[in-house]
Amino acid sequence: MTPTVSASGLSLRHGGTRALDDVSLRLSAGVTGLLGPNGAGKTTLLRVLATAVPADRGSFTVLGHDPGTSRGRQEVRRRLGYLPQTPGFHPDFTAFEFVDYVAILKELTDRAARHREVRGVLDEAGLGDVRGKRIRKLSGGMRQRVALAAALVGDPAFLVLDEPTVGLDPEQRMRFRELIARAGEGRTVLLSTHQTEDVAMLCHRVVVLADGTVRFDGTPAELTARAAGRVWSSDGRDPGAKAGWRTGLGTFRNVGDPPAGADLLEPTLEDGYLLTLDGAGAEVTA
Amino acid sequence: MSGGAVSAVLVRPVARTVPWRTIAVGGGLGLLLAAGPRMWGDGATDWLALTALRASAVAFALGAAFLLDDPARHTTAVVPTRRAVRHGLRLALVAPVAALWWTAALLLVPGSLRPPAADVTVEAATVLALALTGSAFAIRWGDGTRPGQAVAGFLLASAILAPLFSPGSWALFVTPDDPKWALSHDRWTLLLCAVLAVGAVCATERARRAGLRGLRSPSGTSGPSRA
Prior knowledge:
Radius of gyration of chain A: 21 Å
Order of helices and strands of chain A: EEEHEHEHHHEHEHEEHEEEEH
Oligomer: heterodimer
Distance between the termini of chain A: 40 Å
Structural class of chain B: mainly alpha
Number of strands of chain B: 0
Mean pLDDT of chain B: 89
């Protein structure tokens, strides 16, 4: 199957700091999760792949087009939806007006067809009832959904979502997961997140980025399997554990290299992620 | 897709993104300043009229510095309609307003005191172009959504300091009775052309990275992990 995105050796420096270092990856249809600690380079990678910033080195194609050329970049942008980490709006616009504005910027010029599509994506985002409300009067979660609707308008083949569930309450997060899961049907979605639960529930594939480099690229099950036999329960915090915390049951859940005879537990994706980061030399917090 | 078709449909929403209130405040203040010599009465001099018009142009430019502010910049960063089209539309919407406003400012100055209109218009156009190019530069090389405030601050400081500290040999701030007036306006015209050229460069988007990296902030809200 031809990948939607094929990137090779992407590198980018911010001043003296290496934000991306020789990143190569291929993305195809479905939801791919991008995990990593703060400053890992997730947003930078997303912005490069979304053609918002050019890389210093390396190359990539999206849907067969090279964004390094002006023409290629335009073609990519015609098939792209992007939800930035901190979406901004014209606050005096209504939700409908804003998404309609983005639809025009995506070259949907036929008024009737465009309005039909805008109503469609707003309904899909659960904003049908508030589409006439000014954005300044919407809650943070609703604004986030307006941004998602703006990303979805134009039926993009490649959807880039940068921490879309950050700052949302659990109910809103659940709603967002539904939206992203639906958006991932037949599309290529790249989802950056800190939430391993989001990845476990939504993604067919996960990429772990740390210090600007890819530390893991595989399925969520494979990432979880990295922690097989390395999670155990104990009555007190085990000093040999890489990370450990008291659970609601009063026992400690430890992740790392267990002592002989330890009471092993079923690992989660988060355990695999923590151990992957630890192997990368990144700080593991618990 | 025809760029013209998109531009035509974009006119209305783009008109709503223009900070008309800020521009109106700058323009209103500018008209007040331009009316100064008329309110002053018989004591007003040529120098006062010229200074009032120059201050008036700066006031309008301070408001116009906010023209390219775009809180939705990141949400609309990667659409196929180029940023230059959106910025061009904003400029096209404001240009007739600016022309009418400047005509009114000129007419507010009593005819007997009014400096040569074409020359002083070149000065005003240069100041306006500086404000807009400053904003375009900040957008081209930075990640901010609202460069207007910083650009307006820089412009105001420059407007105060340049007449005080620019070398006399540059002869940019002379009066119409000065023999260097014509030379001065050749220089203003050159400066205007240079500023417009920089503005045109800033209107393009980068496909490849180049210098001035130090002006860019990291992409995410969290900083890169290590040096």
